[in-house]
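agent> Task received from the user: take the single chain below, predict its 3D structure, and emit structure tokens. No templates, no multimer pairing.
agent> Plan: (1) validate residues, (2) run structure prediction, (3) serialize to tokens, (4) report one or two observations.
agent> Step 1 OK, no nonstandard residues flagged.
tool_call: predict_structure(input=
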Amino acid sequence: MTALTSSQNDSHLIAAASNRLGDDPIFALHGEAMRRAAEGEDILNATLGVLVEDDSSLCVMPSVFEAFTSVDPARAAAYAPIAGNKEFLEGVIADAFAGDRELGVKSVANATAGGTGALHHSIVNFLEPGQALLTSDFFWSPYRIIADHTRRKVGTFRMFDEERRFNLTALEAGLRKQMDSQGRVLLLLNFPCHNPTGYSLDAFEWQRVVEILNEVSKLGPVAFCLDLAYARYAAPEGAAWVAAVKGLVPQITFLVAWSASKAYAQYGARVGALIAVVQDADQRERVRCALQHSSRGTWSNCNHLGLLAIANLLQDPDLRSQADLDRARLVRLLSERVAAFNGAARSAGLDFPRYEGGFFVTVFTPNARKTAAVCRENGVFVVPLDGGVRIALCATPVAQVARLVKALANGVQVAGEA
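)
tool_result: status=success, residues=418
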């Protein structure tokens, strides 16, 4: 994973593209883990955000494949509507808001290329070039890649206070700073089951987030994008956001980045949507047109087979019921690992935030690169971040959790001594 030098590049690429890295750091670590495993090493690969069975095979949902195979080939082969099929869009809105009509009737949606496409559409339509979105200092690294690629930036606030709770004071200060510097705000939060920390806001924290956003909206335009990628794996309290966001004032545009990747264990189909809750009917129509324009200017039409299949899963009562049963098994599988990790990590004295569900958790460490390197020496692959290492419990069989925690404890200790 190397960047081109200027002599290698000459003048064929524009300056902004001349020294970009060609591989994602997480996928690079995953590739190294796979190579070492292929050479016969006993490797625990806790890098990628994919849910695996305890035998390390990829988790799949049989009902999802039934939905895909039942789609009429002639329909699947045709172009999808640029915004997505009506049944898909209606199903996504109902699914995201758990059928809440108060939110649903004020919403428009647009199909996207996975949740990543939804984030892209949020950034290019609610920030001017050169402006920065605001998110927590622990965040999914592609946020920065998307922002950079669209000529935007990323600003952050400190995510946790001294008690390892969500830092509401820092959030408010960050929002006001962004508003002062650029005259508008796009806040991007990934809850419940935050990637990379695993943290989920409780009802009180959600109430305060809404109150803070309402106050800041008096100063200028505010858009709030909630990345729901892992919401289906949250504890029941993780749904507190639905009631809370109904308290957002009409001046705020509320966006939801919805994805089928995790909810339906369909990472390769690239099916997602951006939902926008807009109170004013005229503005709602403007947002709808803007999102369609962005789709036409990027991927044009989404994967029609995927849209039709996911629409069937969302709308057909029998298929939806079976998908819920399939997913419930996956949630139980992951919950066993979460419980095992919480118990072992606490016993080992590891420092990590509240973790109730989701694909990832972060262990804080004084030197993340050193901690990750020590873990790799022991055949355990985790992802170094600024201030911690990300662990993909989704890819860690429950029988391997004790080994994982032991490697992490050793890595943190060595990092503290370095």
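agent> Step 4: summary for the user.
The first helix runs from residue 6 to 9.
agent> Done.
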